[in-house]
Amino acid sequence: MAGITGTDENHETELKPPTSQQCNGDGHGPAQNGHDEVVMNGDSSMESSTEERRVNGEGDGDKKEEGDGDRKEGEECDHKDGKDQEIFVIQDTSFTIEIAPPGIDPFELPVSSLELVQEIHQLLMDREDCCHRTCFSLQLDGITLDNFAELKAIEGLKDGSLIKVVEEPYTVREARIHVRHVRDLLKSVDSADAFNGVDCSSLSYLNHITAGDILEKKRGKPDSIDCTPPDFVMPGAKDRPLLPLHPGLREMKGPQCLKVLTYSGWNPPPGNRKMHGDLLYLYVVTLEDKRYHITASTRGFYLNQSTEDNFNPRASQPKYLSHSLIDLMNQISPLFKKNFAVLLRKRSMKHPFERVPTPYQVYSWLAPTPEHQVDYIRAEDAFSTRLGYEEHIPGQTRDWNEEIQTTRELPHTNLPERLIRERAIFKVHSDFVAAATRGAMAVIDGNVMAINPGEDAKMQMFIWNNIFFSLGFDVKDHYKDFGGDAAAYAAPGNDLQGVKAYFNLDPKGLFTLGTVVVDYRGYRVTAQSIIPGILEREQEQSVVYGSVDFGKTVVTSDKYRELLQNTASQLKIRAHKVLNSKNEEIELLSSIECKGIVGNDQRHYILDLLRTFPPDVNYLPVEEEEVSQEMKEHGYPRQHRHKLPCLRQELIEAFVENRYVAFVRHAAYQFQQLQLLKQAKSKDKESEASSDIKIKPPPEKAVPEVLVPENGESKEKEKNEEDMVTAEAKKIVETLTATDSQTFEENTKDIVKKAARAVGSLSDTEFSMSFNPDIFQPHVVHVDPEGETFQREKQLVKDAAEFMVLHQIPTLISDCLDHSSSPIDGITLSEAMHARGINMRYLGKVAEMFAKYSSVGYVFSIAISELICRGAKHMFKGYMQGVDMMNLSSAISHFLNCLLGSYPSPHAQVNAEELQTKARKKNKRRNKQSSVFAVDNSEWVSDTPKTLWKKIVDEVADYYGYTLECDSMESATERYGLQRVSLLRAFCRAAGVQLLLREVNLEVRNKQLFYEDDIINTTPIVKHISPRATDAFHFFSSGQSKIQAGSLREGYELISEALNLLNNVYGAMHSEIAACLRLLARLNYIMGDYPEAMSFQQRAVLMSERVLGVDHPNTITEYAHLALYCFANNQVPNALRLMYRARYLALLCHGENHPEIGLIDSNIGLILHAVEEYELSLRFLEHALTLNIRYFGPGSLKVAMNYHLVARTHSCRGDFRAALHSEKEAFTIYKRTLGEAHERTKESSECLKHLTQQAVVLQKKMNEIYKGDKSISFPPIQIQTPSLQSVLETLNIINGIVFVQISQEELDKFRNEMARRQPTDKEDDSKAGEANDLKELTDGSEEGVVVERKEMEFDVDDTVPTVTNGNVKLEQTQELLVGEGR
Questions:
Q1: CA angle 382–385–390, rounded 5-degree value
Q2: Where in this protein does the record put region Disordered (predicted)?
């Protein structure tokens, strides 16, 4: 971290817990990241300076938090801590030291006083000129420095001190570390690990697309540029090639340096050689095909005289003894020396973000033919329970449960403590997810011994690396009454939602298990950390709260009741009493299945949280329970596959909020009526309590159905009015409840009672909404099931389910209609549904409702595609479970041929008779121990496209309640406008299939599409919780609020601080950091600092590619933003390349019929116009016009703008007639929408006059030529070539970007102030300013600025990463956006 200026290091160092336990969690040694961790730190532009971090992070705690309106109580730093923090800040200083490695010139290194010596060590292992050294110490004046000491604690260390790098003797462990490090260096530029999905490697193509680092390019003039787009991104192109998804694979490969580097078969050294310092033996084959045996001794590496057959450990002559293996190889192999130098250069050219490991593994659904090379270390890792980087952690296998719970118990009273804690939690969690995924795959691959091997294969459980694994099957008829295997498959997902809910509450004293759900090869595996002592006794003995037998025996404990009291109120769980088999009343604050277990470590654990939230009665028909008439019309209740359907937490929160607003408005209305009555009696005109805002009588129905609006503008207006009325109503209710007067109280009690009754509150004296999760559960015996309270509880659960169908789904439709939400593919549609609390089982209902609106036809297509994909995935799951491992690739390719191909009888590449023979043999010798993973099933061979599609259509009808009107891939594409390549992509991502990267003509009808060699791998689909950086979230929210209020300077500082805190908690890579970088890029752009905007956005693109995937919807948006910033920086060729890439990725996701393509095409058309490629420009602009008319209506201002752009391009081509026609259309729309007096209408009118004049002149001359007058010469046609600046302004308009009016004087003033406060800063953070006057560049709507806000949702699992139309919306962020007079 030494290379960084700034607190990234400060916290980084400070965050490194000293104990080995926490070391495990932190992994800051040569741990997971190996040399890579430091790479990011070497990037000095990463973060801001020490001073800035110091202020915001700690010392300025009080000042910051005053402006932080969203801060929770108790989260502020106490004033009494202020002094300590100030001392902490003063001690944090930056200075420069000199480092002198052996054999090279000394160099200077900026460091921070809070850094550890270890971080300098890491940096040296990463620097190009000394990266081959691993075993050395750092010495100051001959004294060796302690690796874990902070620099400020080192006596005599000051600015300018010389630290010497001294080579140390090796130990066996150090020698092994050195060999691993050398192997990592040799493959550091190879993308094999990324395609294989190992070591948290992933792909990034930005620097290939832009032909190098954009920040290093000079501002070039846009002349003589080849702007021709590839054929496949042209409007109307039918071809969707796959190869461009992974471009430049050849260039990405590094040169080969060695043929073989492996441990020798002569290991370990015999006793007599150990006495001579031999540690281990290596075997190397060089590119010259020479074979060497190498001894690693305590003093270094040398060649010995051993051969494959003969052991001779004596040194070869001449004896080259080198402390580094690389130095030795340089001496014995000239080709190694040459190629290794090239490799290091290539490595140093990579952006740091291309090298740092991601927190979670990202898998690619396409991969080139794998080149499998000899790699002993990879082979060793494959069969070891310890991950490679865990070699550096003291102790044996990691105790995951202890690590997970210890990190939760760390103190968190002030900001530095919270950062240490959150960082440790995140690190341990990401390590646990990696280990659990690896273990789950080993279980399914048959590589782990069951702990109950005598049981039937489906009932087997496993322990590997201190993690407990169970399969998604109904063990011992546990879920017999709930739907058997279907319930057992759904339960882990529900349980994970419960774990997530409790984890996010962070309750003190209550612990949840580390939980990961992995779907792999058709099986669902749940991985959990192990409660200490649970395996030593029966579960019945362990449970002190809840029930182990679905309600027959129910127990409780005072401690658990106390712990759950707080969580129950936050999760809206109602305390309720149930009867056990002895008729004893037991009070529960959770569902009955939820179990409380006290571990041997005396911690209170809570598990089996699958019914944390109330049941979904729409999918749980109960005898004698009626649903409302409206719900019956929608076809509910429906029978479901299992009896565990629950509502989502997001729905519960939205429902309670909706009911609270209804309650408040009801009470306020009644109160106003009471006041008016009093006034009428007393004729007192000056009653204080009456308000100017009249509150309408509440609707009779508490949950009104949302009517999908025709006009987005009126919707916005209504929403603002509604908010004002609600705010007024809340004030009145506060007055009501806070008054002490006796008579007043009697009147108001009645008002509150009526309002509470009207919204279904469970209390008559206040608004009380909580849910009994055990409602409608036949196995639970409730106390007083006929009582009024219980009836109210039942009604409330019914109302919540009704709210989903009558309110939340129409809200989703409405958001898509007004383009505030615009899903790109199935992933973003699912996230949009989840954010509104809509479960995926309602996808059929969502599709049915989207089908009614033609302007969101693209969302309907995405919904249908997702239904087919999910139906196919359900089929695939059962299909995969029966396949013999030898026929796996044949089976998968056959399934894909049946799903996507038009060839009626694809041939399964396996002999059916052979399969049946095998099956018969197997049946004869079947026994209880036969593994579930080897049960042969040959039914899949007989599948055809016809039979598979019938199964999918039946599955979708049964599970999602939607009737697909298609029976093959052809009919699906014709009927619903689907794209085969999009369905292929969606299915491979959802089912975890990795295909060979090659061109496939998916439309071919006379042969099958895929063969067994096309299936490269199967990858796991991993679900887990996502720990959050709470302080960063608060800084981010506060920054957004400031920006909304126009205080850009303060907002910019807060967002920058959020970025620092995110880096402290998550390290270098995380999707939330990408969101933060994107917002900082946009802020810099708005404030006119284009180079800085480009720098931030470049990092956002790289990070999005790495952590989300190269074809993720977010990545498309990032590319489009970067293209705009490149254009602003005069990098026109790069802007076009990036836009072409964005269009290609969008086409892969959804095809051309999407408003996002309209926006991209407008951008491409404008940029091509700027470089005078008018013919190409026109094709893109006309296509954008067609799409905008389809999705925004022929009268929208967006369409008018498009007509104007098309007219401008026609005029530049000299086609004035066509230009005139287009401009007339624009003028008509402006005149009708904005009126004749509006500036935009006047501009259009002027343009029309000019075009008419030009057209008349041209026509006259043409007529004269036709008459035969040869002396006529054409006057120069007045075509004005657009300036880059005018094109940029138009780009801002179509992208809906706010323009900030800020004087240069103010900007300079702010920069000077920042420079004064942060003398060591680079210019990163001196680009901000205060803006009180925001001026929008819209299409001229007279309604004024429409500033939209979108709450930042940091939870990656639930966030809706939407990419919208003209409002280039920042997903997971909240940004100043401008509506375009929709």
A1: 100
A2: 1-85, 682-702, 1315-1344
Q: What is the pLDDT of residues 1130-1172, one digit of tens each?
A: 999 999 999 999 999 999 999 999 999 999 999 999 999 988 8
CB 1170 within 8 A of CB 1282: yes
Q: Cis peptide leading into 773, omega within 30 of 0?
A: no
Of 1245, 1165, 1240, nearest in space to 1210 by CA: 1165
CA distance 541 to 600: 13
Phi–psi pair at 450, nearest 5 degrees = -75, 150
Name the residue type at position 953.
Answer: V
3-state secondary structure 1264-1275: HHHCCCCCCCCC
Nearest to 1299 by CA among 1341, 1270, 1335: 1335
Mean pLDDT, residues 503-513 taken together: 94
E strands along 114-175, which residues? 136-140, 143-144, 162-167
Q: How far apart are the two ends of the chain, measured CA to CA in Å?
A: 49
> Could you tell me the CA-to-CA distances from 808 to 258, 373, 842, 846 in Å, in that order?
60, 54, 11, 10
Position 1257 scores a pLDDT of: 80
Q: Write down the pTM of the prediction.
A: 0.84
Tell me the C-alpha distance between 752 and 766, whole Å: 7
Q: Which amino acid is at 824?
A: I
CA 1176 – CA 1164 distance, rounded (Å): 9
For 780-817, give the DSSP string: -EESSTTSHHHHHHHHHHHHHHHHIIIIIHHHHHHHHH
Within 8 A by CB and 6+ apart from 794, the residues are 625, 775, 776
Half-sphere exposure of 1142 (CA within 13 A, CB side): 28
In the numeric block, the tokens 């990401």 are attached to 430
Q: What is the 3-state secondary structure (H, E, C) of 564-609?
A: HHHHHHHCCECCEEEECCCCCEEEECCCCCCEEEECCCCCEEEECC
Distance, CA of 76 to chain centre = 29
DSSP-assigned beta bridge partners for residue 138: 165
What does the pLDDT read at residue 1298?
Answer: 60
Residue 373 phi, psi dihedral angles, 5° rounding: -115, 160
| Burial zone of 1094 (CB within 10 Å; 0-12 exposed, 13-18 middle, 19+ buried) | buried
- Distance CA(970)–CA(863), nearest Å, equals 18
Reported as a pLDDT band with limits 50, 70 and 90, residue 474 is: confident
Q: Tell whether omega for the bond before 268 is within 30 degrees of 0, i.e. cis.
A: yes
What number of CA atoms fall less than 13 Å from residue 172's CA on the CB side?
Answer: 10
Cβ-based neighbours of 1110, under 8 Å, separated by 6 or more: 203, 204, 205, 245, 246, 364, 1145
* Calpha distance 180→1030 (Å, rounded): 37
Query: In one letter, which amino acid is 483?
Result: G
> What is the C-alpha to C-alpha distance for residues 1350 and 1369, in angstroms, rounded to an integer?
9
Alpha-carbon Rg of the chain, whole angstroms?
A: 34
CA dihedral 75, 80, 83, 85 (to 10 degrees): -20
Q: Which amino acid is at 36?
A: D
Neighbours of 448 (CB within 10 A): 19
Backbone torsions φ then ψ of 511, nearest 5 degrees: -120, 140
Query: What mean pLDDT is predicted for residues 1105-1127?
Result: 95
Contacts of 1295 (CB under 8 A, 6+ apart): 1124, 1159, 1163, 1366, 1368
Residue among 190, 176, 186, 187 nearest 134 (CA): 176
**CB-based contact 1346:712 (threshold 8 Å):** no
pLDDT band at 1356 (very low <50, low <70, confident <90, very high): very low
Q: What local confidence, expressed as pLDDT, does residue 1138 receive?
A: 95
When the pLDDT of each residue in the chain is averaged and rounded to a whole number, the result is 80
Residue 1031, SS3?
A: helix
131 contacts 324 by C-beta, under 8 angstroms = no
**For 637-688, how does the pLDDT look when each residue is reduced to its tens digit (9 = 90+)?**
999 999 999 999 999 999 999 999 999 988 888 888 888 887 887 764 444 4
